[in-house]
Design a protein that fits this description.
Length: about 290
């Protein structure tokens, strides 16, 4: 998934913990083979290659995941959109650090973007696109889903205390380490300051995901363009510097971090569930950060 996954686990038997961690990494590798849009033989790649031509029957797991993605898209007003793939390619973020595209290229990409072009058939468990050029992108969902699955594997192996992290941006804390009963102590980075912290949280049977414009960006004529795209406009989102979401599941915290980033603080306050906590840093000179009420 283009990310580094890590596992920290506590227990009384080292061999048992190492075996459980190996199984969790094995689950991440399995999901990479299913969800990767870089591997030519993954189920995800097959969908992108074929679904505009004919219905594609999906595994039960991928069908459920894509059903969740369409729900996120609808609830976020399109700020989360699983079909953002063509836009990421036009802006050069698919494999590189980004480049400023032509307006005509953005317009062409927008014509191929929109979750409403994805047709799921629950009875046949199939997917089909209603136009050529539609392309699913797992970048906003894959790591969070993988972290949750890895936690499930660890639990199934009897592990009660663990921390699973995907690239440091999607994290789940299972239980609490022996020296910290509140949970796993996690620092939220201050935007633009790699060694400074904007907040500190404790994760105990909960997740944290962060999206930040400082993660991947480029500059043209003094203006910064980040990799966090608004699928409705075709341009990088403005107004936020970073957004961190605490939620019971990592798939939810990762999926919602970008819509909150794109739609802004006021929209987030009006739409976030009661069991979510959101830490919002504005994209101003001061980069003021606070929890969203």
């Amino acid at each position: 998934m283009g990310s580094t996954f890590s596992v920290v686990a506590y227990g009384s038997n080292r061999a048992t913990l190492e075996s459980a961690a190996d199984a969790a990494f094995g689950e991440a590798e399995r999901l990479d083979r299913m969800l990767s849009n870089y591997l030519p033989d993954s189920e995800w790649t097959e969908v992108n290659r074929t679904a505009a031509l004919q219905q594609v029957r999906l595994s039960a797991e991928l069908f459920q995941l894509l059903s969740d993605c369409l729900r996120y898209s609808q609830q976020s007003g399109g700020a989360f959109d699983i079909t953002v793939g063509p836009l990421m390619k036009v802006w050069g973020f698919y494999r590189g650090e980004g480049e400023l595209p032509r307006t005509s290229d953005i317009r062409d990409a927008l014509a191929r973007i929109g979750y409403r072009h994805v047709r799921l058939n629950p009875e046949a468990r199939t997917i089909q696109f209603d136009r050529q050029g539609v392309e699913l992108d797992p970048g906003g969902i894959g790591k969070g889903y993988a972290v949750d699955r890895m936690i499930a594997v660890l639990r199934g192996k009897g592990v009660e205390i663990a921390l699973v992290s995907a690239a440091g941006s999607s994290i789940y804390g299972l239980g609490a380490p022996p020296d910290e009963p509140q949970g796993w102590r996690i620092a939220i980075r201050a935007p633009g300051h790699a060694k400074q912290h904007a907040a500190e949280v404790f994760l105990k049977d909960t997740s944290l995901s962060t999206s930040g414009s400082y993660e991947k960006f480029f500059r043209v004529e003094g203006r910064r363009y980040s990799h966090i795209m608004d699928p409705r406009t075709g341009y990088p989102a403005q107004g936020a510097s970073s957004v961190s979401v605490i939620a019971p599941r990592t798939i939810d915290s990762e999926a919602w971090a970008k819509p909150y980033f794109i739609n802004g603080r006021v929209w987030t306050a009006a739409h976030k569930p009661a069991d979510f906590s959101v830490f919002f840093c504005d994209d101003t000179k001061e980069k003021a950060c606070s929890w969203v009420d």
